[in-house]
Amino acid sequence: MALSGEESGADGAAKTKYDPEFTDRVIAATGPKAHPRLKEIMPSLLRHLHGFARDVDLTIAELMIGIEMINEAGRMSTDKRNETGMLCDILGLETLADEISSKLLFDSGSFEAATPSTVLGPFYRPNAPLIPYGGSIIYAAPDSPLVPPSGEMVDAPVGEGGERFDGEAGRRRRADANGLYEQQDVAQPDMNLRGRLQTDETGRYAVYCVRPSAYGIPPDGPSGRLLELLDRHPYRPAHIHFVVTAPGFRALTTQVFDREDEHILDDTVFAVKDELLVSFEPREGDDKARWTVEYDFALSEA
Ligand code: BEZ
Ligand code: FE
User: Fold this and answer.
1) Which of 107, 153, 170, 292 is the most exposed place for a label (fewest CB within 10 A)?
2) Residue 161: which residues within 8 A CB-CB, separation 6 or more?
3) Each residue of 244-302: pLDDT tens digit?
4) pTM for the full model?
5) Nearest ligand to the C-alpha atom of residue 271
6) HSE toward the beta carbon, residue 201, CA cutoff 13 A
């Protein structure tokens, strides 16, 4: 059977109905002084890109729609929201690049026993407030409807059997219980639910936060619209982000996921991994928190 954009030749081999030499001509336009990595990857990118266009018989009108979608994502992207990144996320591209990066590290022998990484996502903000061990990242006033009757404690002992969470603070951020990050929600204070957590001298961390809820990709941009056109749901299961750093170790970008969440098996950005599932257990004897979660991070040496 011939793919659309191709015809079968007399010998049965697929023969394109479009100029068969065009892609080679575009590839050959690369000059000898091209950047070495681009020289390596562009032939593959161009073959796949042109192959896709021929395969689906891409028209100019459709190309223009795609270009406008990327332009719109670019216009919407700021230091608080990365809409272009979100498009990559719903297409599975950040999750795939994360898998490839992890495999390359693993093959180089420097990755064994580390906690798995997963996507950073489009809502990361650097320079969150520094939080001492046992502090809180709930910056809303105590009587605000944004603060639940009791928060949740996330805490982790130093692991055994080679696990470790050493040194400096992990950077941590998450969506609120209403499913909105602070930059999406005028009712939340700047940097609400984000912090750079400092560990104690043994590498333990502990923080009060809000138990996260499932989170929907915002419908107001090209990512949300594409999901709708694809008849896909927009939800990510409840999660907490961590970027864990320590001198002498590789930075780990990851998330932990509430194993009870109804979308735990169908994350719309495909980023859940079994090793990152956590249970929120009832927390006894602490009037500041109703639930508690423990998670140990293991870093690989740099
Ligand atoms: C998030 O982690 O919140 C996220 C990740 C990818 C796309 C959208 C949101
Ligand atoms: Fe997130």
Assistant:
1) 107
2) none
3) 999 999 999 999 999 999 999 999 999 999 999 999 999 999 988 899 999 999 998 88
4) 0.85
5) 1
6) 0
The secondary structure of 157-207 as a DSSP string is: PPPSTT----SSPEEEEE--TTS--GGG-TTSPTTTTEEEEPP-TTS-EEE
Q: Which residue has the tokens 């293991």?
A: 298
Residues with CB under 6 A from ligand 1: 86, 89, 119, 121-123, 215, 217, 236, 269
| Distance, CA of 29 to CA of 12 (rounded, Å) | 31
Q: Extract the tokens encoding 217.
A: 């990709």
pLDDT tens digits for range 231-248: 999 999 999 999 999 999
Ligand 1 atom 5: residue of nearest CA = 121
